[in-house]
Amino acid sequence: MNVYLLVKTTHILSSVLLVGTGFGSAFYLFFANRTRSVSAIATVSRLVVRADWWFTTPAVIFQMMSGLWLAHTAGWPWQTPWIIASIALYGVAGACWLPVVWLQIQLARMARQAAANGDEMLPKRYWQYAKIWEWLGYPAFCAMLVVYFLMVFKPVSFA
User: Fold this and answer.
1) pLDDT-based confidence at 38, cuts 50/70/90?
2) pTM of the predicted model, to two decimals?
């Protein structure tokens, strides 16, 4: 069995898992928030946090390790423009994702507490955090889309 192709296939599948879970989680929490239903938001936010721990976090780690290994094994120099751009954009996505993880945990806690108390509304802080969470998702998602483009096309230069 060809180890390079096995790692490459797993790398591609984990990238789909990473971006798909991120987009799907964002989609469901975004629309659960629009319902203003405390119980729905509490349930969805709890599952979003769980999805990040179970799927996104392992995929983030594997993506970086396997991507660097694949580039090295294929003989791509580290200073290749598409590799530098991919790593930088992955860093942008990660810089957005780390606070998002913290925000999601806080959102889930506030929603869980409100649901347990039988509150009909979430606190103002919930909505402030939700807005930041949402706005951090846009650059992270766009960065990952460009990384996909770079992985597929591997442009030697950007001129």
Assistant:
1) very high
2) 0.90
